[in-house]
Specification:
Shape: globular
Structural class: alpha+beta
Helix content: 25-40%
Order of helices and strands: HEEEHEHEE
Strand content: 25-35%
Distance between the termini: 44 Å
Largest sheet: 6 strands, mixed
Radius of gyration: 19 Å
Strand order of the largest sheet: 1-2-3-4-6-5
Amino acid sequence: MTPADFRLEVTDAPAPAELAAIGDALTAFNTADVGPSERQGLAVLLRDENGAVIGGLAGFTAWTWLYVQWLFVPEALRGQGIAGKLLSAAEAEAQRRGCGGAWIDTFSETALATYQKQGYAVFGALPGFPPGRTRWFLQKRLDERPTAPSVFQGKPKTL
């Protein structure tokens, strides 16, 4: 294939089949490169007295890691250790699935402190994402193997 054989198209509304074509090709490449991800969704739901979902945690396990994509605790329930319970439940399930680590990201300094209390360590930061904030990337070993010390010392600062 040469550059004359293709064209670039920018869109803000790709069709599901177009996204699937990219995802399928990347999955095939990654599987050939590092093996199958064995990706599996994982959710820990927080329900009210009527059974309605009012918060919780959602993510997935893949390549022996848990990725926590979303974690939400309603304001009225914050400060009561619920985020820690959600993380602990997800981590226990991830360990059951054979995961040795977990990672999460946030641009909330409150969430950052919560995750650090749960044993997560900063391994990266993206200043200015979103503007006026820093997006923090944190990890935690679930298999109790030692990790490299964080390159970040002291209290993280928003840039």
